[in-house]
Design brief:
Blueprint (H helix, E strand, L loop, with lengths): L1 E5 L6 H11 L6 E6 L4 E3 L6 E3 L2 E2 L8 E4 L4 H7 L4 H9 L5 E5 L2 H7 L7 E2 L6 H5 L4 E2 L4 E4 L4 E4 L4 H13 L2 H10 L13 H17 L1
Parallel strand pairs: 1-2, 1-6, 2-5, 6-7, 7-11, 8-9
Antiparallel strand pairs: 3-4, 10-11
Helix pairs in contact: 1-6, 2-4, 6-7
Length: 212
């Protein structure tokens, strides 16, 4: 089974690496990083880079697609006929599941996969997602199994989505074994992981951090 994770400039790498660590554990599975060309793709601040393993034209019929998010999705969505969007629209025709993490759902919507459907994304991108024809929701993971589409909210929720995907691709016991292997047992020190929980003081500090 081939699982393709597309990369693009200014990607958020936890969106990609979280699901990668889950899905690479599955038996008889190959996870490949794909892109417009084989190159080193860096995050927005340039601190981390990952190599693209294969070009889009070399990965035509993956069984699963996991589209990460990040600031780079804005450029992908803004460009008409972007190679990533065209590849997703084509490859989705034969996938078992096409999925996204964070603002990767904007790319799925741009590719025409979410017309009128509820979808998860980062809380800061609800308006952008709705502008592309989907309906945003605060749910952490949203499934439309008849449409073969699953979307996850911001960054860390990609691990939750990938574990559910592991169950769908194999079975519950295998998914649980994978969870144990990566010791995914969240016990965060703070209860501030969503807009509703964080409060205005934390939100204001986040805005300061992002604009400084």
């Amino acid at each position: 089974m081939q699982i393709a994770i597309p990369l693009f400039h200014n990607v958020t790498y936890l969106d990609a690496i979280g699901p990668y660590e889950v899905l690479r554990q599955l038996p008889e599975t190959q996870v490949v990083f794909v892109g417009d060309k084989k190159e080193l793709i860096r995050t927005g601040n340039g601190d981390m880079g990952v190599m693209v393993d294969a070009c889009f034209e070399d990965v035509v019929t993956p069984e699963v697609i996991v589209v990460p998010g990040g600031y780079g999705t804005r450029a992908v969505v803004a460009e008409e006929g972007h190679p990533l969007v065209r590849w997703i629209a084509q490859a989705h025709r034969s996938t078992l599941f096409t999925t996204s993490v964070c603002t990767g759902s904007l790319v799925l919507a741009k590719a025409g996969l979410l017309p009128g459907l509820t979808a998860a994304t980062h809380w800061s991108a609800y308006k952008g997602l709705e502008g592309l024809g989907a309906r945003s929701t605060t749910s952490r993971v949203v499934e439309h199994l008849d449409d073969r589409v699953i979307t996850a909210a911001g960054v860390s929720s990609g691990i939750d989505m990938a574990l559910r995907l592991a169950e769908l691709l194999t079975d519950e016991t295998t998914a649980k074994a994978t969870q144990l292997m990566i010791e995914y047992d969240p016990q965060p020190p703070f209860n501030a992981g969503s807009v509703d929980k964080a409060g205005s003081e934390v939100m204001n500090r986040l805005i300061e951090m992002q604009t400084s």
